[in-house]
Design a protein that fits this description.
Helices cover about 35% and strands about 20% of the residues. It has helices at about 5-20, 30-35, 70-75, 85-100, 110-125, 140, 145-170, 175-190, 250-270, 280-290; strands spanning about 25, 50-55, 60-65, 80, 100-105, 130-135, 195, 200-205, 225-230, 230-235, 235-240, 240-245, 305, 310-315, 330, 335-340, 340-345, 350, 355-360. The protein starts with a helix and ends in a 13-residue tail after the last strand.
């Protein structure tokens, strides 16, 4: 068995025992890959490429004809079960053979229809059985990254930085947001990326006041702030990076908010370390922005975990209670967004260490006139 998969399954079974679960049905694609190495992608939320069914003694990969060869090759340590008429068809017999009384499911991800099918199937097999929604059980393992995972994240980020540097060199007034977004996608693919980790955000002028703006046909104008938020997916692992570009020396107001955002980012990075409350890290950055008079214009959390998914645990946000651990990988992305004017967001990725954090970004792309 693959050593990483074997170790992860061992840890996961320990969590199952702690929750007194006889079996667990894995539906989240990233969790499925993490525990099995099975790489097939889901077409959409209601068209899965497969599920894992894990008990103390057995691990099964349930899928259909389209994916059976991939499953055999990528997850040879899993028993393969092929369903012809959907997952519901094979579950009762499996639940009976596994003697399932307490089944864990990923209720935070399953559709209502899938959850109903699972409940009906287990009641048919074992009338006394219970279906238990377990949010974040596998995600709790994924939150601390293994050395190979960190290497893959670094490689993904290097591709994203190379892409951004390439775009940075050609940016100029007259290009549309859509044109720049497409160039980002092309460069990531040409650089070897499997995909973008999310649709790129290219937001110029007043559109930069929208934290998750969708690229439009609007053309970039002289002295516009342009928020560029992009990420790649390489060897399954994601990256996420944001910089704010402008043509020439911008007006004083933009310089001011850029400087505040950069100060907030640096202040937050200075306090990140194992054992620190994620909410306190958010508070440090928020305090810098508040004291500059822009607190109401920073309305999202400071950052989030990145790994197999571009947004995962832990979250750096006002709501605290989550302690950072060594080898978590998180973003640090404060922003200020002024309606009708534009905005600034700056995003680094960092690895939490015992005594601080390692900034994973190698290319800064910060404006020097902002840090004076």
């Amino acid at each position: 068995m693959n050593n990483a998969v074997a170790a992860r399954l061992q840890k996961f079974r320990g969590l199952m025992r702690a929750d007194k679960l006889d079996a667990f049905l894995v539906a989240v694609p990233e969790n499925r890959y993490y525990l099995s190495g099975y790489q097939a992608e889901d077409m959409n939320l209601v068209e899965s490429s497969g599920y894992l069914l894990i008990s103390e003694a057995r691990q099964l990969l349930l899928t259909d004809f389209r994916y059976q060869e991939e499953a055999k090759q990528e997850s040879p340590e899993f028993e393969l079960v092929i369903y012809k008429e959907g997952l519901r068809q094979v579950l009762p017999e499996l639940f009976t053979s596994l003697k399932v009384e307490r089944l864990g499911v990923e209720g935070h991800y399953c559709t209502h229809s899938l959850y109903q099918d699972v409940e009906e199937a287990i009641k048919e097999a074992v009338p006394t059985a219970m279906t238990i929604s377990c949010e974040g059980l596998v995600e709790g393992l994924r939150v601390v990254k293994e050395p190979e995972e960190i290497d893959r994240i670094k490689d993904s980020l290097a591709l994203t930085e190379k892409t951004l540097a390439g775009v940075w060199d050609i940016l100029k007034p007259g290009l549309s947001e859509k044109e720049v977004a497409w160039k980002i996608e092309v460069l990531i693919r040409e650089g070897g990326g499997e995909a973008v980790s999310f649709p790129p955000i290219v937001a110029g002028g007043p559109n930069a006041a929208l934290p998750h703006a969708v690229p439009t046909d609007r053309k970039i104008q002289a002295k516009d702030p342009v928020i560029l938020d992009l990420g790649s997916k390489l060897r399954r692992y994601c990256s996420d990076m944001t910089r704010t570009w402008t043509a020439g020396v911008p007006e004083q107001k933009l310089q001011e908010i850029y400087h505040v955002v950069r100060e907030a980012q640096l202040a937050a990075q200075d306090v990140i370390r194992a054992g620190e409350d994620a909410g306190q890290v958010d508070a440090v950055a928020r305090r810098v922005i508040d004291q500059a008079g822009y607190g109401e214009y920073f309305g999202h959390g400071l950052g989030h975990g990145v790994g197999l998914a571009v947004h995962e645990q832990p979250r750096l946000r006002k709501k605290g209670g989550v302690l950072l651990e060594e080898n978590m990988v998180v973003t640090v992305e404060p922003g200020i967004y002024l309606p009708g004017f534009g905005g600034v967001r700056l995003e680094n990725m960092v690895r939490v260490t015992r005594n601080g954090c390692e900034v994973l970004n190698g290319r800064e792309l910060f404006y020097p006139w902002k840090d004076n």
